[in-house]
Amino acid sequence: MQRCSVNRIISFVTLFAMVGSSGCVTSRIEQARHTSTGLQDGDGVVILAQRQNVDYQTEDGFVSCLSNELENKSLGITMHPEQEFMDMLFPWFEPAHAPTHAEGLRELLARPGVAERIAETGVRYLVWIDGNTEIVDGGGNLSCTVGAGGAGCFGFQWWENDSTYEAAIWDLDTLEHAGTISTESVGTSYLPAIVIPIPIIARTKSAACNGLARQLREFLVATPID
Amino acid sequence: MNKFRVTPFLTILLCACSTTVPPTDTEFPTPLVEDLPAAVGIYYDDELRNFTYNETVSDGTSWTIELGQSNLRLFDRLLGAMFDRTVQLRSIDDVRNDPTLDGVIRPVLEEYAFLTPNELGSRFYAVSIRYRIYLYDNQGNEIADWPINAYGQSRAAVLNAGRMRVGPLQDATNLAMRDAAAGAIILLREQPEIMALTTEGTADDAAMFSE
Lengths: 226, 211
Description:
By secondary structure, chain A is an alpha/beta fold. Chain A is built from six helices and six strands; from the N terminus they run H-E-E-H-E-H-H-H-E-E-E-H.
C-alpha cells in the first residue's frame, strides 16, 4: 500500500513537471519601417547572424528557430540556409567583412559576380540578426545528495533570462535598409526541489523567436504601399 | 557517513589530462572573386605543413592542436581561386626553373592562440591566428609581406568536459582559418605588388618593388 502511494506521488510530481513547467514571459516587439516590402514568386529570404561581437554571439539555435518559424510556402516565404548563402558568397558576408550599411551593400553588389551570384540564390531579403539570451539575475541554493538509500535534492533556485534580439531587413532588389524589428522577452525560471527538482522554465528565447518570426512575416509580405 | 556530494565526484570523473584536436576535413568555400591573370608558385615549408600547437592551460589540461593539413587545404583553395595558375614548389629557388611563373607566395603561420571558456570567463572558446604572406619575384627575391590576423569563436558544449571540448575548439579554429582566408583574399587583391604580377613585363614590375 505504501509503495503504491509513493508511486502515485512520483507520477503526480512528474506529470506536474511536464505540464506545468513553463514560467511567465513578458515580451515586447518594436518595428521601424523605412521602405515598402512585398514578396513575389521565387523571392527568398536568408537570415544571417551578426558575429562581429566578441562578448556574445547570436545562438545558432535562435537563427534556425527563426528560419523554421518564418518559412511559409503559402505566403511565398522561402528560406535560404545561412551557411550555404555565406559559402556561395565567400568572403563577402564573413563576419569581419560583411557590409554594415546600405552604402557598403551597394559597393559589394558592384563587384564582379556578386549580384549575379545573389540572383542565383533567389534571395531578395537579407535579415541580419543581432542579440542573444543571457541570465541577468538569479539566486537561491540547491543541493543534491546520493546515498545507499537513494538520491534526492533539496532547495530552491531562480534565475531571470533576458532575450534581446534585433532584425535588420535589407532589400537586395532596391539595395535599401527596409526596416528594423527588435524584440525583448524577459522571464524568471524557478527550480524548487523537495527530493525531486521541478523546473518551471521561462522560455524567453522561444518567445522571442516566435514573436520576431510573426512580426517579420507580416513585415515581409506586406503589400507595397506605393 | 557513506553519503557524498555529487558535484566533486562528477568533476573527478570528467576531468581530462590531455586533449588532442585533430585536423578536420572541413572544406573551405571557393572565393567568389575573379582570378588574377598570373601564374604563381606556392611554397609551403615544413613548419606550415606539420604545424602542431601545444599548450597546457590554467586548469592543467594539455592541448594539442594539429593544423598542418588544414593549412594546406586553406591556401590551396584560396590561392587556387585567386590566380589563373598555381604550381607547388619544393623550394623558393625553384621559381627560376619555371619561366612561366610570375612570382612565388609563401604563407607562414606565425602565431596560434586560444582561450578556454574558463580563461575567458564566458561560454566560448576563442581562437586567434596570425599568418604572414610573403611574396617573391620570379627570381626568388622577397618583394613584400603582409600579416593576416584572424579570429574565431565557438560556444562550448553544455557539458564542457572530455571529448565534448574538442568540437567547439575545432569549430573556433576552423572559423579563425576561414576568417584568415577571407581577410587574405580581400587584402592581397588590393596590393600593388600582387597586381604588378598580372601586368605585362611582370618580372620588371615586381623587381621594382624589391629594390
